Amino acid sequence: MSVFTTVTLAELAHWLRGYAIGSPQDLRGIESGIENTNYFLTTTQGRFVLTLFERLRPAELPFYLHLMAHLSGHGIPCPKPIADLQDAFLGELNGKPAAVVTFVRGRPVLDPAAAHCARVGEVLAQMHLAGGTYERRLDNLRGPRWWSAVAPEIYPFLDAERSELLHGEIRFQGLHRHDALPRGVIHADLFRDNVLFDGEAIGGVIDFYFACVDVLIYDVAITVNDWCTTPEGRIDPERLGALLGAYQAVRPLTDEERAAWPMMLRAGALRFWVSRLYDFHLPRPGELTHAHDPEHFRRILRHHIELSPAPLPAVG
Asked: I need a labelling partner for 50 at 20 to 30 A (CA). Which of 24, 40, 233, 281 fits?
């Protein structure tokens, strides 16, 4: 469980005087997540989610909160930020920036079938289209510049083989530019635990706190690397076909995106291998924390490199 900042019901009751969502009745830490402190919050008026932001700066947070408001206003199933009595989405609780969002129904599907992947591909494409009218901008804070900056802190923990792989892939990604690829708002973390299914439908897409403006096909690759891979790090063709087919039924990929597909798969795997290595070897102190196994994304990256998959064919 990831709870870095403890909040008591008494502290919360005082803070919630600035909102019109009732008095707190229950507060429970949420197990998933390693970046923020998250609680399920029950008040006299309903259920919500309270987030205290541990790493993100207050100047960055309006991008994420207003993005969720924008997407929910366009029919995307995602949490909607709750404004306080001063009409602000962002406050401060126990010395940390904090926000309350609506509770969305559903549970993660951790062993997805092709049908689940199709729903995810569809909603991802819908998010990309809806994000086209979002005016705020924020660069990817976990992009190539970040990979290069944190790698020297990670190398001392790696053996020669893993160090060589990490160094070589960072160098490979740095040799390519993506100026011809469509860009826009991306979720950048659409993993299985960030999509809640309510029956056969998606009840909610959550955790937008890695969202940014970047290459859209990169977001698709990140999603495929989680939803369509086996525990051994291999791509399952049926799930891949379902996700990409549903995505392209809403937003067809360009020729340039299809050509860049192999590189984007590798970039998505590298990004999460680096972040998991960093969190595993250089953890932050917290009351209750959970770090994911870095080896899963090393296997995915190695598989992508060895296969050297061909560009995606056109659909139609």
From this structure: 281
Closest by CA to 19, choosing from 95, 104, 101, 94, is: 101
Question: Three-state DSSP class for 208?
Answer: coil
What's the pLDDT score for residue 33? Answer: 60
H/E run at residue 175:
none
Q: What is the CA radius of gyration of the chain?
A: 20
Nearest to 272 by CA among 210, 230, 215: 210
Domain that holds residue 192: 114-307
How far apart are the C-alpha atoms of 187 and 263, rounded to whole Å?
Answer: 19
Choose the final residue of a domain: 50, 78, 102. 102
Distances from the Cα of 248 to the Cα of 68, 115, 309, angstroms: 23, 15, 19
pTM over 0.85: yes
What is the number of structural domains in the chain?
Answer: 2
Residue-wise pLDDT tens digits, 201-233: 999 999 999 999 999 999 999 999 999 999 999
Q: Taking a C-beta distance cutoff of 8 angstroms, is the pair 185, 134 a contact?
A: yes
Same domain for 141 and 52? no
> Which amino acid, one-letter code, is at 25?
Q
Angle at 102 between CA 97 and CA 108, to 5 degrees: 100
Same domain, 272 and 302: yes
* 212 and 190 Cβ atoms separated by less than 8 Å: no
If asked whether residues 123 and 83 sit together in one domain, one would say: no
| pLDDT per position as a tens digit, 75-132 | 999 999 999 999 999 999 999 999 999 999 999 999 999 999 999 999 999 999 999 9
E strand residue ranges, the chain = 24-29, 36-43, 46-53, 91-93, 96-102, 183-186, 195-198, 201-205, 212-215
Answer yes or no: do 296 and 184 share one domain. Answer: yes
Q: With cut-offs at 50, 70 and 90, classify the pLDDT of residue 57.
A: confident
Same structural domain, 118 and 91: no
